[in-house]
Design goal:
- Helices cover 70% and strands 0% of the residues.
- The protein is mainly α.
Length: 171
């Protein structure tokens, strides 16, 4: 299996959390005759599976989604395939060992450069949107002062600190 970048890890963890009960929920909605809700569940599963590169799961979810458009229960065989594919993906994510701690790995120099390039113009414009970058910035050990300045809306000082950090970290 290829090495996943930080965003791919986050997406797979989000998938694991958000889709864990989808098959159960889908069956419950179909049993209750709530085909519009079941359709939305299948549609969401299709899109998220495609986003994480699970084309087999995405394809079968699409087939189920199309069947639900006719406001009738999907083919039982297709539902078994969907269940198997969903369980396969959920198990692969679980067994891969990826976990929340993967987000505590400091970004590479290139990732730091990209992050600081996003942050600098926000600080220059005194844009409070820079607060949204704090979780990513805080992972970098040397940024504690910078994070505190941003959280205190002291963007002028934060800009000075950022420029010093760029020199110190070489980014």
């Amino acid at each position: 299996m290829k090495r996943l970048n930080r965003e791919e890890v986050r997406l797979r963890l989000d998938f694991l959390k958000g889709q864990k009960y989808t098959f159960h929920d889908l069956n419950a909605e179909i049993s209750a005759g709530h085909y519009a809700t079941a359709h939305r569940l299948a549609h969401t599963l299709k899109g998220i599976a495609g986003l994480i590169g699970e084309s087999d799961l995405s394809d079968i979810a699409l087939r189920i989604e199309k069947q639900l458009l006719s406001r009738k229960a999907p083919d039982e065989y297709d539902m078994r395939i969907l269940e198997g594919e969903l369980n396969r993906v959920l198990n692969e994510i679980t067994e891969s060992g990826i976990e929340e701690s993967a987000f505590n790995i400091p970004p590479t120099k290139d990732e730091q450069t990209v992050l600081f390039n996003k942050l600098q113009p926000l600080l220059e414009e005194n844009d409070a949107a820079c607060i949204e970058l704090v979780p990513e910035v805080a992972i970098i050990y040397e940024t504690r002062v910078l994070v505190r300045q941003i959280e205190n809306y002291d963007f002028t000082q934060a800009l000075i600190t950022l420029k010093v950090l760029r020199e110190v970290l070489g980014v």
